[in-house]
Amino acid sequence: MRKIRKKKLSAENQIIKAYRLILGRTPNKEELSIAKKFLKAPNGHRDSFEVFIKTLFSLNEFIYLG
Amino acid sequence: MEFDRRKFLELGALGLGGLSFSSFLSSCLKKESVLGQQFDQVIFITTNGGLSHLDSFDYKPKLEKYHGNSIQLQTKNGLSNARIIKSPFKFKQYGESGKWVSEVFPKLAGIVDQLTFVHSMTANSPNHTRALSLMNTGTSIPGYPSVAGRIIQNIGTRNKQLPGFFVLLDSSKSFPVNGEHNWRSSLISPQFNGVVIPSSGQPMADLRKLSSLQLKEQREQIKLLTELNSIYNQKNDFAAKLEGRSQLFSLALESQTEILKTLDTSSESQATKNLYGLEQKPTHHLAKQLIRARRLVENGVRFVQVYTGGANTDDSWDFHEDVAAHKKMAEGSDRPIAALISDLKQRGLLEKTLVVCAGEFGRLPTEDSDSANKGHTGRDHNASAFTLFMAGGNLRPGFSLGSSDEIGLSVEKNPISYHDIHATIFQSLGIDLATLKGQQNDPILDFIKKQGRSIDQLFS
Known about the structure:
The structure holds two protein chains of two kinds. Chain A has one domain (2-63). Chain A is 68% helix and 0% strand. Chain A contains five helices and no strands. The longest helix of chain A is centred in the N-terminal third of the chain and has 13 residues, at 11-23. The radius of gyration of chain B is 23 Å and the shape is globular. In chain B, 35% of the residues lie in helices and 16% in strands. Chain B is of the alpha/beta class. In chain B, a hairpin with a 2-residue loop joins strand 2 and strand 3 (78-83). In chain B, the strands form five sheets. In chain B, strands 1, 6, 7, 8, 9, 10, 13, 14 and 17 form a nine-stranded mixed beta sheet that branches. A two-stranded antiparallel sheet of chain B has the order 2-3. In chain B, helix 7 packs antiparallel against helix 8 and helix 10 packs parallel to helix 11 (326-346). Chain B has two domains: 1-30, no CATH class; 37-206 and 256-458, Alkaline Phosphatase, subunit A, CATH 3.40.720. Chain B has helices at 5-14, 18-29, 62-66, 106-110, 128-137, 147-155, 215-234, 239-263, 270-276, 284-298, 326-346, 369-372, 418-428, 443-451; strands at 41-47, 70-75, 78-83, 91-94, 99-102, 116-122, 165-168, 195-197, 303-308, 353-358, 362-363, 381-382, 386-391, 400-401, 403-404, 411-413, 416-417. Residues 1-29 of chain B have low confidence and may be disordered. Classes of the chains: A mainly alpha, B alpha/beta. Chains A and B meet through helix 3 and helix 4 of A and helix 7 and helix 8 of B.
């Protein structure tokens, strides 16, 4: 996560970077917009980017081989 | 049923001769069940290890007469000679039905007129793993979906905030034989798995609130997960299972507080605690689990299975060593089970709750040769005859179906298999066995549909 954070990337590029690192592919338009919406939404005290990364690791796509 | 020329020719052409024709005939004779929906939910109490019908509810006075006589019979070690042994317990008649019950079950004897017995149960194997699997899944090969899971798959559950199928274990830390295969959803979606609750300690080991995330934030995260997953699922042919995983996450999220609240027995009245024997040592564990079972069905859970006895011979109903040890297990279970039935009744829940109590098989009228060597009298497994009882709804109270022979070795009248019990459960929950839904390529589904016949005569 630090690796993604370190570079001063735009939110969109951070999402793309995270997808590439974790799932080995670029997100499609739909996925990008869902992720952007999630990151933009007002959140409690929790860092929403961290939650987003953890969610990628819980995806069916990450856990199961298609 | 009509059979035309074409059907007859087909039968001949198959070349299976007598076999196919006899199965064709039996399918013509098989009566369709007329049983409509009777129940909303089921509590299945499993006397794990094989409760002896001969020392509990199937009174055989002839055992006293033949005590000490040798007979030849088939045991799990092959054909051998064994000595008949009488029950160490006294039997008395109870209630208006005049049912004979063993002295070690005084509380159940007290409500015997509310129970419905089947004395002609048979299993297909005198082996724990195979027989328990048959009881739970409808096949003796462990690893197929549980019957409870199939029920939830077909009619869902009433409370969407709780899983539909709970498995409450006895004090023993050990799982019953076959372990998780007893409640796994297997081929069908993981959301139909049984949720296992031990009788002591944390009800669910992994169920605690994350301190860092608020419920609202957790909901947001699960929403994100579900949305991203659904894009992926659409592209995969095993999407149904993946969909189940997403639904499981949502269920876990919504039920995390609900489950703990429902399982908490501390708010029960002192009268209820006393009724079940919650604060007494021998009954504590089963009392707790049966109060929880009542609370679960009260809150709309479809199927609750409660085990009495674990996998070890010394803390289950598996008495190879000494028949008299039944007394110890009965002391821990007689009162809570009778209490559950009375409690359901006083709360008006018994009308819509089917209570079933049985093990995977019964026990032989003869002495287990292994125990004789140790100077005790135990009984080995018997899959050819055993007893099951039920209570609830329109079941005929005080009625007994079928019978075993004079020494309880095998069934004499009205043989009933677990397939028939499953058919009765499906049918009485309003699930038409003929249209039972399942997964594609599920080899057991057809088997379940065809083997069982709903026992309509148990109902008035």
